[in-house]
UniProtKB/TrEMBL annotation:
This is Biotin carboxyl carrier protein of acetyl-CoA carboxylase. CDD domains: biotinyl_domain. It comes from Parvularcula maris. It comes from the Bacteria. Keywords: Biotin, Fatty acid biosynthesis, Fatty acid metabolism, Ligase, Lipid biosynthesis, Lipid metabolism. One of its GO terms (cellular component) is acetyl-CoA carboxylase complex. The keyword Mitochondrion does not apply. Residues 56-86 are annotated as: Disordered. GO terms for biological process: fatty acid biosynthetic process. This protein is a component of the acetyl coenzyme A carboxylase complex; first, biotin carboxylase catalyzes the carboxylation of the carrier protein and then the transcarboxylase transfers the carboxyl group to form malonyl-CoA.
Length: 161
């Protein structure tokens, strides 16, 4: 039995080396009745499991756009909802509206964008994920706040036209 365990541990070590050498983040191997899964970083499910820690801070930014809309009701709130298409976050993470702290934002309200153009970045597990425009259109509203947490499927901005 110990010999079999040693063999299994050797396979796990070899798979871990493949991960390190290849840049992959996950490998799954099934042999006979044995199924091995080696993951370099925690799986996205683990990120979602930690979502409750993000829910409470998210409530404050969600209220802030409503307050901003109340201050300027005709500017964004009414037209964006019926005619705009929400671009949603594909993951839990932190939204960044510009490529670096001292750079201009990728887009602003009123910017005409092309399909595939970078709208913002969502950082998840120290990986910067570009959020791209699904289609051409005009940015009607930016709902995410810079350097604030976002949830999976949360609307980040709306496009119209």
């Amino acid at each position: 039995m110990a010999k079999g365990l040693d063999d299994d541990l050797q396979v796990v070590r070899e798979l871990a080396n493949v991960l390190a050498d290849s840049g992959l983040t996950e490998i799954e191997l099934e042999r006979g009745g044995l199924k091995l899964r080696v993951v370099k970083d925690p799986a996205p499910v683990m990120i979602e499991a930690s979502a409750p820690s993000y829910q409470q801070p998210q409530m404050a930014p969600a209220a802030a756009p409503a307050q901003a809309a109340a201050a300027a009701p005709a500017a964004e709130a009414a037209p964006a909802a019926p005619s705009g298409e929400a671009v949603r976050s594909p993951m839990v993470g932190t939204a960044y509206l510009s490529p670096s702290p001292d750079a201009d934002p990728f887009v602003s309200v009123g910017t005409q964008v092309e399909a595939g153009q970078t709208l913002m970045i969502v950082e998840a597990m120290k990986t910067m994920n570009e959020i791209k425009a699904p289609r051409a259109g005009k940015v009607a509203a930016i709902l995410a706040r810079n350097a604030e947490p976002v949830e999976y499927d949360e609307p980040l901005l709306t496009l119209e036209g």
